[in-house]
Amino acid sequence: MRLTKAYQPTLKEVPAEAQIASHRLMLRAGLVRQTSAGIYAWLPAGLRVLRNIAQIVREEQDAIGAEEILMPTLQSADLWKRSGRYDAYGPEMLRIQDRHKREMLYGPTNEEMITDIFGATVKSYKELPKMLYHIQWKFRDEIRPRFGVMRGREFYMKDGYSFDVSYEEAEKSYYRVMLSYLRIFRRLGVQAVPMAADTGPIGGELSHEFLVLAPTGESGVFYDSDWEAMDWQDMSLDPGKDEDLETLKSLVAKTYSATDEKHDDGAWQLIPAEKRREGRGIEVGHIFYFGTKYTESMGVEVSGPDGTPFYPHMGSYGIGVSRLVGAIIEASHDDAGIIWPKEVAPYKAALLNLRPGDEACDQLCEEIYALDPEAILYDDRAERAGVKFNDADLMGHPWQAIIGPRGAKTRTIELKDRATGERFELPFDEAVSKIGLR
Ligand code: 5CA
C-alpha cells in the first residue's frame, strides 16, 4: 500500500480519554475510532491485525478438528428462556424488540444457540464428539467500558463448543482446546499462562483463564517460571493422542499459576524463590467444562449405544480476538510506539523513501514495493525523514527498509528491526529475503 493513497489517519495528539498505552497507541496509529461508548470502527491497519489474529485462531482450531460455522449476532429471547439464563444474565444483555414485538437480544455468547442447533441435527452417540466454533461480534452492556477495545461493549470473540458422550471424553476435548490455545498465543507472539478460574455466568466445574503477561494488566498473577520455558510449538504434543493430553493435564496441575483471586500462599511457598514470578496479566481467553448444564435445561438428548437417551457433556471456549489487539500492544510497545509480533503485523515492512523525486531512490523503492505491494507500506509522502521515522516507529511494522540517495546509488538497503533497534546495511537480495519478501 502506498501511504499517499492509503487511509491511514495517524494522530499527533495523545487523546485525553485514553488511559493506557495500548488505547493511546491504537488511536494514535489510526487502528480504530470510537463511534460510541465501548464501540469501535476498525480502520484499515487495525482490521488487518484483527484478521491476522482471527486467521491464526482459525488455523489452530482447525488443527484440533474443530469446524468453523457462523451464527448470527441477533438471537431470540425464547432460546434463553429455555436455559433459564434470560433473566439471570441481567442488564449486561442488550434486549431488542422487533416490529412484531418479539423479544430479541444481541448475543453476549452462544451456548443456547449452539445447543439448540446441535439438538435439532444430532441424534445419536455415533455422531459424537463434535467441536464447532465461530468468530463473531458479541455485545455486553458493560457498566464501565474502558481501555479501548480491551473492555468494549461490542467486541469480536472466537467461541467454540464441544459435545461429548461422557465426562472423560469431554475432559479430553477441554485439554485439546487448551493445547490449541497455548499454540495460538505463542504464534501471536505473547506469553500467555493458563490459570484456574471461576466460571461466572457461563457456569460449570472446570475452568481456566489465559492471561497475557503485561505490566498494565487488570489482574495480579502469580506463576512458576517453568511456564516461560514451555514452547508449545516445539513440544510436539499431539492433540489426537490421549497420552499427550494427559501430559498436558499433569503439566498444568503441577506447574503453579493463579490470579490474585485464586492465589494460594501455601502452594506458593513450596516453589523455590528464584522460580516465583509475580506480575500482571490480561485475560485473553477463558475455557469451561460445564457438563450437561445446557443440554439438560434445554432438553437436548441423543440416543446411546443401547438406545437409551442421554444428555451430551459440553464445554465452551472463548478467545477475545479484539481484546487481543490491545493486549498484544500492552505486552509489546515502547515509548516510540507499537512493536508488532511478525505474525500479526499489518504489514511486514515500512518502506521509507527518504528522497521522493530523486530518480535512484524512487526506482529502488518501486522495485522493492513491486515484490509484494500487499505486505509493504510504502511511505512515498513528501515528508521529512524524521516524520517518516516517527510514523514507522509508531505503526510498529517489524521491519523498516530505509532508502536514501547514498544507498540508492549502490543498491544498498538499510534495514531496521523495530523490536531490537538493530540496523543492517544489506545488498538488495539479502535485504528483501531478510524481510521475508522472497
Ligand atoms: N461462552 C464463554 C466461552 S465461549 C464466554 O463467553 N467466555 S468469556 O465470558 O470469558 O469471554 C471470552 C473472552 O472474551 C474473554 O476471555 C475475553 O478475552 C473476551 N471478552 C469478554 N468480555 C469482553 C469485553 N467486554 N471486551 C472485550 N473482550 C471481552
Structure description:
The protein is of the alpha+beta class. The protein is built from 15 helices and 23 strands. Bound molecules: 5'-O-(N-(L-cysteinyl)-sulfamoyl)adenosine. Residues 109, 111, 140, 142, 151-152, 155, 157, 159, 202, 283-286, 316-318, 320, 322-323 line the site of 5'-O-(N-(L-cysteinyl)-sulfamoyl)adenosine (5CA).
Strand-helix topology:
Blueprint: H1 21-28, E1 32-36, E2 39-42, H2 44-62, E3 67-68, E4 74-76, H3 77-83, H4 85-88, E5 94-97, E6 103-106, H5 111-121, E7 130-139, E8 154-164, H6 167-187, E9 192-196, E10 206-213, E11 219-224, H7 226-229, H8 242-254, E12 257-259, H9 265-269, E13 276-291, H10 293-297, E14 302-303, E15 309-310, E16 313-320, H11 321-331, E17 333-334, E18 337-338, E19 349-353, H12 359-371, E20 376-379, H13 385-395, E21 399-403, H14 405-410, E22 412-417, E23 423-427, H15 428-435
Parallel strand pairs: 3-7, 19-20, 19-21
Antiparallel strand pairs: 1-2, 4-6, 5-6, 7-8, 8-16, 9-10, 10-13, 11-12, 11-13, 13-16, 14-15, 17-18, 21-22, 22-23
This protein binds 5'-O-(N-(L-cysteinyl)-sulfamoyl)adenosine.
